Amino acid sequence: MQDLAGRVSGRVQISTDGLSHYPPAVVAAFGEDVDLGVVLKKFAASHNAGRYSPPACVGCETKPVIGEPEQKHISTSYIERSNLTLRMSMRRFTRLTNAFSRKVENHAAMVALFFMYYNFARVHQSLRVTPAMAAGVSDHVWDIEEIVALLSA
After folding, report:
1. Dist CA 86 CA 110 (whole Å)
2. Is the pLDDT of residue 135 over 90?
3. What is the pTM of this model?
4. CB atoms within 10 A of CB 133
5. Of 107, 75, 109, nearest in space to 93 by CA
6. Is 31 left (phi over 0), alpha (psi -120 to 50) or beta?
7. Where are the domains of the chain?
8. Are the beta carbons of 47 and 29 closer than 8 angstroms?
9. Angle CA 79–83–84, to nearest 5
10. Which phi and psi (to 5°) does residue 66 adopt?
């Protein structure tokens, strides 16, 4: 949260799940100059469909916690989709795996490489261009050689 607060200016709206650690962390980073909304999911009672099967989500409630967040923008869907894409694309993020990084620096480098490729080199079907091109940040699809050349720069 401290890193995020240092990168943005003005009042922001943040959405989180119901983990109790988030509101104090948001206040510590942003003070009261933030709008925080929480998504609370309700899950069905435990079932025995499978050892690693999560319980079914049977309801969802959003509520403002700090400031006046816009109710229609309280959502964790974007970050949950991003996390799913990351887990499905990089073996080191799947559960029950031995494909991990021994050093945190290597892990951070792999995550950075993935996001660079995902946003600058991978043409997305729904956009028909890369996200960087859609945002006007790049004018072409990057190739791996261009990404690797950034390392020496």
Report:
1. 11
2. yes
3. 0.71
4. 19
5. 107
6. left
7. 2-75, 99-152
8. no
9. 120
10. -130, 140
Amino acid at 2: Q
Ranking 18-22, 87-91, 98-102, 103-107 by mean pLDDT, the lowest is 98-102
**How far apart are the C-alpha atoms of 113 and 103, rounded to whole Å?**
16
**Residue 129 in contact with residue 144, Cβ under 8 Å?**
no
SS3 category, 27: helix
Alpha-carbon distance 148 to 151, whole Å?
Answer: 6
DSSP secondary-structure letter at 43?
E
- Rounded to whole angstroms, the Cα distance separating 118 from 112 reads 10
Mean pLDDT of 86-111: 81
Please answer whether residues 147 and 120 qualify as being in contact, where contact means their C-beta atoms are separated by less than 8 angstroms. yes
Asked whether the CA dihedral 130, 133, 138, 141 is positive or negative, the reply is positive
The DSSP code sequence of 55-122 is PPEEEEEEEEEES---GGG---HHHHHHHHHHHHH-GGGSSS-----SSHHHHHHHHHHHHHIIIIIP
